[in-house]
Specification:
This protein is about 30% helix and about 15% strand. It is α/β, with parallel strands linked by helices. Helix 3 links the parallel strand 2 and strand 3.
Length: about 100
C-alpha cells in the first residue's frame, strides 16, 4: 500500500483555487422604484436568470414577477445578509 503525504500549504492553495471556481454569484440590486420598467437591462437579465431571488419586504410583486418562473424566493429583513446559497442568487433591496 502506498502512503500519500500532503504538503499543507499546497493543499490549502489548491482548496482556495477550487473554492474560487465554484463561488456563488450574488449580485445585489437596490431598486429605484416599484416599476419594473425602471429596471436596467442588466438587472432584468439577472432576474430572468436567477435560481433564487432574496428580497426585502416592500419589493413590489411586479418586480418579483420578472424573475424566472421556477426561481426560489426568500424574504430578508431590511439590511440582512444572505447566507451562502447555491446557484445564481439575486438580492433585491427596497428603495429607501
Amino acid at each position: 500500500m502506498t502512503e500519500i503525504t500532503l504538503n499543507k500549504t499546497v493543499f490549502l492553495k489548491t482548496l482556495d483555487a477550487l473554492r474560487s471556481q465554484f463561488q456563488v454569484e450574488k449580485p445585489e440590486i437596490v431598486l429605484q422604484s416599484d416599476d419594473p420598467d425602471d429596471l436596467t437591462l442588466r438587472q432584468a437579465r439577472l432576474l430572468g436568470s436567477a435560481d433564487l431571488v432574496a428580497h426585502e419586504p416592500g419589493v413590489a410583486e411586479a418586480i418579483l414577477l420578472r424573475a424566472r418562473a421556477d426561481a426560489g424566493r426568500k424574504v430578508l429583513k431590511r439590511g440582512e445578509k444572505l447566507a451562502d446559497e447555491s446557484g445564481l442568487v439575486v438580492v433585491l433591496r427596497a428603495s429607501a
